[in-house]
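Internal tracking record. Fields below are filled automatically when a chain is submitted to the structure queue. Please do not edit lines marked as system-generated. If the sequence contains nonstandard residues, flag them in the REMARKS field before resubmitting.
Queue: standard
Priority: normal
Entity type: single polypeptide chain
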Amino acid sequence: MSKFETCYQFPEGFLWGTSTSGPQSEGTVSGDGKGMNNWDYWYSIAPEKFHDRIGPERTSSFYQNYKEDIELLKETGQNVFRPSIQWSRLFPEGVGDINPKAVAFYRDVFKRIKATGVKPIVNLYHFDLPYALQEKGGWENKEIVFAYEHYAKTCFELFGDLVDTWITFNEPIVPVECGYMNDLHYPCKVDPKAAVAVAYHTQLASSLAVKACHKLNKHHKISIVLNLTPAYPRSHSEEDLKAARIAELFQMKSFLDPSVLGKYPEELVDIIKKHQLMPEVLDEELEIIANNTIDFLGVNYYQPMRVQAPKSLRSDKESFDFDTYFEAYDMPGKKINPHRGWEIYEQGIYDIAMLIKEHYGNIEWLVTENGMGVEGEEKFIENGIIQDDYRIEFIQNHLIELHKALEAGANCKGYMLWTFIDCWSWLNAYKNRYGLVALDLETQERTIKKSGYWFKELAQNNGFTKGGK
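SYSTEM-GENERATED OUTPUT FOLLOWS
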């Protein structure tokens, strides 16, 4: 059979870039004025929980090297970049005095990003709660909602002349699941009632930030970034279909519906009430959520969720956990990233696009994260450059599905990879590398990978050509 090539051209003005976060890239420097966040504290009391005992103070030294790093945005062809502001850097105690060094740092960062011709989309919160607020109850305490609102307003006022596109929270379901349904994030408190309160307070804070943003500048746009993970049932049995539906209620729709539609799914609320997990909810708070929906949506997609009905029935009187309604299903024959262990299912990005089109008013959205983590990437070095053809193929195959979705009417405006430069990743530290640019942790030297050069061509051509048979 003869070979052929297909050209995948994207719409004019399509955005190409990467995402990162402050706590995973900036690091901490003596005298920088940054306060302790929950990750700093957890590492200080339990360093053994972190891969190779590498903590958040090291990360990728963006705070020291940002001028050179921003130049690498141009060298990898990006026209959009999503960093985050660290709440604990701007307000070391979460509230009160502002750190002037943080103001100067972030203003210079945003100025330099814009000067390179790159659009900054700035995230306000990436799992990094100031520890001083954690000591007061963290997201379980409704008072934090108003501390966050003040923080967000301050960011809009301090940086609004440089940034016109904002994100309230990155993946807000993750701290709920990992910090309050499991012990993978601090405070490692397995408490379903607390988990529901944390989720509700986070959504309320997000809606208040949307309101503040629009009040201060009606031309600015603001979003929330959600890790949308479609739930695919083991079979088409009624029980498995119900398991998938409820899995999506918790994992996707608990933030998607209030953020985009301004209301919670009734079935989700009924489940919460049945298990007596309802937090304090005021009518005026629900009005805030209803009247302050986002302008566009950020979507992070890595892998699907495979689920099945629970193997054993549980009484409604038993304590709540997700296994009450659905369990993970290990699908035979699935495509796997052999370097990371996660399933690769490119069609998921198409399915997300169609969900947004058909059930969420076809709201404007961006892929804000998609990427391939690889352990031991140094084994692919040839002539001083990591030959990460596997990453290029991963991106291409997801973009083919995104292109298909655009042809079907999806309202996606851009694609952003996780991540720019190899960065620190929560408990895994530098075990899995995701960057277009490699980082030598000891020397802090940056080296563009093969995928970084390819990404520049992708952005310049606003598309790519892929061969086949």
